[in-house]
Amino acid sequence: MSMGKGRLGGKVAIVTGAASGIGKAAAELFRREGATVVGSDLAAADGIVAADAGNEDDVRRLIADSVAAHGGLDIVFANAGVSGGLASIFDQTAEDWAEILRVDLIGPFLAIKHSAPHLKARGGGSIICTASVAGLRSGAGGAAYSAAKAGVVSLVQTAANQLAGTNIRVNAICPGLIETGMTELIYKAARDNGVAHRIGELNPLQRGGEPDEIANAALFLASDESSYVNGQALVVDGGLTSSMPTARRFDIRAE
Ligand SMILES: NC(=O)c1ccc[n+]([C@@H]2O[C@H](COP(=O)([O-])OP(=O)(O)OC[C@H]3O[C@@H](n4cnc5c(N)ncnc54)[C@H](O)[C@@H]3O)[C@@H](O)[C@H]2O)c1
User: Fold this and answer.
1) In this structure, are residues 77 and 13 in contact, taking their beta carbons and an 8 Å threshold?
2) Any idea what the CATH number is for the domain that residue 111 is in?
3) Minimum-distance ligand 1 atom for the alpha carbon of 55
4) Is residue 241 domain-resident?
5) Which ligand 1 atom sits nearest the alpha carbon of residue 181?
6) Reported pTM
7) Is residue 31 part of a domain?
8) Residue of the CA atom closest to atom 1 of ligand 1
9) Residues 116-173: pLDDT tens digits?
């Protein structure tokens, strides 16, 4: 394997959901850090390969083609996802559930299943799956989305252990509220109603996050800097999930 410059120099990476938001930011950052990146999304575009992340044939082909084109695979960021909106359980159908679970949970499973043999052939690698704070607590998505994301947190634990001895690390990232295509309507509604300043007010940083702030966490997990981090869910949410709900506020006073 050639050693290039940057924190991912000489590595080959696949990023799913790379046409927008977090995946787009991560694909660009991984490239800047020296990786050869295959970005994929539902539709082909400049620098984007078409592959449905929840379809096994597509995932198998995406991975096989990437390995054939670039001589191997070191990093997979299984990031593609759909939210399904904030509908209540009474308004969701079994078909809604099946589609959300297909993309958000079976997608990462397929990415792990079909990439691990190639990573093992390189002597190891890093698989990162995008979960969500919605998988840790209620209140950040619909029931199917939250259940799928909780499943991703569990999946990386199981996968990390089933891949014991391969030097493949499997981790998840749990973003809080990030401004992307998925949250566009939330941000638009807040701006239209003159309450943009209230976006993210429930976390101690009191703001929403940027895609680059998740891409940076993905870069850490993709790189050898996280060489002893395995089977974990890294929460990147401005502190949102670090507290019980509370109305108390504290003044900072000088001594
Ligand atoms: N934005 C947030 O606040 C937030 C918070 C927590 C978790 N997430 C997660 O982050 C990940 C990225 O989402 P984002 O916020 O960047 O949203 P986004 O909508 O901007 O990007 C998601 C991308 O995934 C693609 N995609 C959807 N279904 C696909 C499929 N079946 N196959 C391939 N590509 C598919 C979309 O076309 C889109 O380009 C998702 O897994 C999402 O659940 C987002």
Assistant:
1) yes
2) 3.40.50.720
3) 31
4) no
5) 20
6) 0.97
7) yes
8) 178
9) 999 999 999 999 999 999 999 999 999 999 999 999 999 999 999 999 999 999 999 9
